Amino acid sequence: MIPVLFYVAAAIAVGAAILAMTRSNAAHALIFLIVSLLGIAVLFFLLGAPFAAALQVVVYAGAIMVLFVFVIMMLNLGGNSQEKEHDLLSFEYWLVPGVMAGILLGELVIAINQTTNPLVSDPVLPKAVALSLFGPYMLGVELASMLLLAGLVGAYHLGRDFLVRNRERSS
Amino acid sequence: MMPEATVPMEHALIVAALLFGIGLFGLMLRRNIIFMLMALEVMLNGAALAFIAAAAHWGNPDGQVMFLFILSIAAAEVSVGLGLVLQMRRQIRSLDMNDASQLRG
Amino acid sequence: MQLLLTLVPGLPLLSATLLLLVGRHLPKAMVTACGVGSIGLAGIAVALLLNQWLISPEPFSVTLWQWLSVGSFRVDIALHLDQLSIIWLCTITGIGFLIHLYSSEYMAEDSDYSRYFAYLNLFVASMLVLVLADNLLLLFLGWEGVGLCSYLLIGFWYQDAANGAAARKAFLWTRAGDAAMAVGLFLLVAEFSSLDIHEVVAGAQLAWVEGSFLPNVACALIFAGAVGKSAQLPLQTWLPDAMAGPTPVSALIHAATMVTAGIYLLARLNGLYILAPAVLSVVAMIGMITAVVAAFAALAQHDIKRILAYSTISQLGYMFLALGVQAWDAGILHMMTHAFFKALLFLAAGAVIECLHHEQDIRRMGGLRSRLPVPFWSFLIGSAALAALPFTAGFASKDLILLRVWSSGPEGALLWSGAAVGAFITALYSFKLIFVVFFGDINTEPTRQPGWRMAIPLGVLAFFSIVGGFISLPLDSVVPLANEEPPHGLIAMVTAGIPIVGVLVAYLLFGRQWIRDLAGPMHSTVGTWLAAFWHGGWGMDTLYRRTLVQPYTALARGLRNEPIDVLVNLIAWITTQFHLGLAATQNGQLRRYIAIMVVGLILMLSLVDGGAS
To answer: What angle is formed at CA C132 by the lines to CA C126 and CA C135, rounded to 5 degrees?
Structure first.
């Protein structure tokens, strides 16, 4: 049962990625990208990394993708926003991603109810990851935190001008 | 434990390679910088999947640690990259990467 | 005495400096007073010196200041007056003054009046330094100063490119000789570690054996400088072209300054040349050949000034011939008389040219005898002296040279016959000039008469052209004099008769219209060819142009594109191409970079795989 789940999730992840790369509308592409990320999260879960799967959903599909959404909204890509809104709500646009997401949700439910996971003999538990992370990889964590701080400062600096300019223009 | 059909690590790695390749082609073929950033995300996910698969196969936490690092890199990259998108929009009034060629020699 | 001697070159130099610095802003009368007056005052100083000299003929030196001092080698700015230099002083300042006076009228209309007089004064000053120099280095300074001024004055009307070319030619040809002369001076310094003329000559007579290698080389090298400066074969081609300058400048170059410097140098160093009899016989031979060759060339010219230029070369040949056979006094006497009558001829020619609106071609002149009496009589006297007709100055000196040559030794007869042919041709062309210009039909009407400032120098020079030969030059302390009297008898009569025959032939050929028409051989093919050949100065100009100038300009033209640099530029070009190729990849297209990175990644991965298996 589990391998079938794996291949289906993999197919959805790859197919959603291909669809995301081939859309002309950025908003549609973003939705497919999120589906692809969710598929990968399911793969993580199946591969015995539930913590990574949770992070994938929360941080990747959640936080990072929200940034994309903000930028796309801010740039107002695709001209008339009202027409756009209407398009997004139309049936044909959300059907395919919705079906894909539904399948993934079903898979997740099935996988959680399985007592044994044949894909991994001894799963790596979050505790081991945490011990490793704050043990030998301490320096990497510090570097990552520095990187995130730099990203924060850089994004603020790059984006501030745009926002200030836009506020002035609107007022 | 009863023998059950399993998925070899190679298949997981093939999926990872497929994702990486899709991202790479997207990066090369799309001209819109938003799509290029998305393609980068796909590529990062391909790499992350490879790490997770390897970690599951060897029972080693290092793969998951690497996933966490990839996550933080992706977060920083996206924030700076999207800031650059805003700047690009302002400076050259286009999101087409072919227009952003002031660094030509 | 010493102050007077310093003033002689000092005054013209001062005037030249003044005129060069502020001459442009001075009124014309001031410039004239300055330019002519300085030479006049120098002339008065020379006259006072001469007066003193006649009372107490003692050579003396004035050391003004020390110029160079390197180890034991020491050169002073020092002037030396003796019999030789005082003769030159009288000639230079006397004739120079007359030419300056003449110039003040001749150049009155020129816009560069002050520059002209500045150069002219500097020219005279340089020549005075040259003849007064106590050592060979100071002499060389004056020598080069003369060369510089000749360049400046020949190219005085520099707006015409041809004049500039003539000036460059004069400068370069004399430089060719000067280079050899400088080497000769270095040799003397190396041998005697001194350039003081008296020390060098005395040292040479002690240290060198007559006819040995070193004196021959040194004398030959210094003689090369004299050849260049005095326009002897083979460096004579610059002098006819030097006619590009104003006519008084030609008079100055040909009579008082510049060309006689070579004569002075050889006479001054006679003690050295006696040690090199081989060089002396070469000097005599070159002088004789130059005299003949230039005389023929003069015969074929049409330009009045070029005729006189070739005659100068020819007469200088006589002087070198005299020096070569050790008839020093005859050569120096001829220098002086030649200065008188050549200045007279040039100034008269200048008057004719000026009165005929700058017409220089004698074929368009004629019948000017009654129209321009002053130039006519000047020309007649000058030509008579040039042809060495009896009772003129030219006769006294040239006759002396020919007779001395005859009795000079085994080669005497050969040299004499060459010189006699030259003398005949000289008489022929000088009276051809008279007959063509002043007799026959009037071709061009003169528009004005020469004024007093032109007429006075002509009169004075005409006077000296007749009586100048009777001045007996005291030379006993500077050159060895011949003991025996010149030969008498048949040879003396023949020598004296040659010019008269020349004048008669000239009269028959050019003075009588009917004979001129009958002169068939003149118009034959050979005659025409010969005339053209001589007109071009025996093809020397063409020869030099083919062998020296054209290869050189061709080389320069080839080098102008810098063929050597092509190799170096090739390296730069290759680097540039690499740069362009690499720059082409930096096209700013991010997607292209990505594609290239991917290709590189695939290549590297394939290599890794190959290594693993």
So the answer is: 100
Distance from CA of B101 to the nearest CA of A (A): 19
Spell out which residues of chain A touch residue B13, defining contact as CB-CB under 8 Å.
none
Residues C420 and C539 grouped into a single domain: no
CA atoms within 13 A on the CB side of C152: 17
The answer to whether B97 faces chain C, any CB pair under 8 Å, is yes
Dist. CA C146–CA C214, nearest whole Å: 28
Radius of gyration, CA atoms only, chain A: 20
C436 shares a domain with C528: no
Higher pLDDT, C563 or B52: B52
Please give the average per-residue pLDDT across A120-135, as a whole number: 83
Confirm whether C397 is domain-assigned: yes
How far is it, in rounded angstroms, from Cα A33 to Cα A15?
A: 10
Same domain? C408 vs C555: no
pLDDT tens figures, C16-66: 888 888 877 778 888 888 888 888 888 888 888 888 888 877 778 888 888
Q: Which two tokens stand for residue C478?
A: 């500077």
Tell me the pLDDT tens digit for each residue of C212-269: 788 888 888 888 888 888 878 777 777 777 787 788 888 888 776 778 888 888 888 8
- How many domains would you assign to chain B? 1
Question: Helices (DSSP H) in C371-508: which residue ranges?
Answer: 373-387, 393-406, 412-438, 452-467, 490-506
Is the pLDDT assigned to residue C383 strictly greater than 70? yes
Instruction: Give residue B39's pLDDT band: very low, low, confident or very high (50, 70, 90).
Output: very high
Is there a contact between B100 and C588 if contact means CB atoms under 8 Å apart?
yes
Which chain B residues are closer than 8 Å to A63 by Cβ?
A: 75
**Contact residues, chain C, for B36 at CB < 8 Å:** 590
ipTM beyond cut 0.85: yes
Answer yes or no: are the C-beta atoms of B83 and A159 closer than 8 Å: yes
Q: How far is Cα C308 from Cα C295, in angstroms, rounded to an integer?
A: 10
pLDDT at C483: 64
Say yes or no: B23 contacts chain A, CB-CB below 8 A. Answer: yes
The predicted structure's pLDDT at residue B1: 37
pLDDT at A40: 93
| Phi, psi for residue C375 in degrees, rounded to 5 | -60, -35
The percent of residues above 90 in pLDDT, for chain C, comes to 2
Give percent of chain A above pLDDT 90.
Answer: 29
Domain count, chain C: 3
Interface of B with C in 14-53 (CB under 8 A): 24, 27-28, 31, 36
> What 3-state DSSP class applies to C10?
helix
User: How large is the greatest C-alpha to C-alpha distance in chain B, in angstroms?
Assistant: 65
List chains adjacent to chain A, taking adjacency as at least 3 C-beta pairs closer than 8 Å: B
Predicted confidence at residue A162, as pLDDT, reads 65
Q: Is B59 on the interface with A (CB under 8 A)?
A: yes
Residues C463 and C348 in one domain: yes
- Rounded to a whole number of angstroms, the distance between the first and last alpha carbons of chain B is 65
Contacts of C532 (CB under 8 A, 6+ apart): C300
Q: Which of C518, C547, C573 is the last residue of a domain?
A: C518
Domain span at B52: 10-96
Q: With an 8 Å Cβ cutoff, are A121 and B6 in contact?
A: no
Question: Rounded to whole angstroms, how far apart are CA atoms C582 and C597?
Answer: 15
Alpha carbon of A52: minimum distance to chain B alpha carbons (Å): 7
Neighbours of chain B (3+ CB pairs under 8 A): A, C
C609 versus C270: the higher-pLDDT residue is: C270
The pLDDT value recorded for residue A4 is 86
d(CA C438, CA C432): 10
Q: From B36, which residue of chain C is nearest by alpha-carbon distance?
A: C591
- Return all residues near C286 (Cβ < 8 A) that are at least 6 apart: C227, C232, C233, C317, C320, C324
Domain that holds residue C599: 562-612
